[in-house]
Amino acid sequence: MVKRYGSRVALAGVTFDVGPGEIVGLLGPNGAGKSTMLSILATVLVADAGTATVAGHRLPVEACAARHVLGLVPQQTAVYPTLTATENLRFFARMQGLGGTAAAEAVRRALALIGLEGRADEPVWRFSGGMRRRLNLACGVLHEPRVLLLDEPTVGVDPQSRERIFAAVEALARAGAAILYSTHDMEEAQRLAGRIVLLDRGHIAAAGTAAELVAAARLTPRLHLRTTRALRGDWLANVTGARALDGTGSEALVEITETAGVAGVLRAAADAGGDVLELVLHRPTLADVFFALTGHGLRDDESPAAAAR
Question: Which domains occur in the chain, in start order?
Answer without folding.
Answer: 2-215 (3.40.50.300), 220-283 (3.30.70)
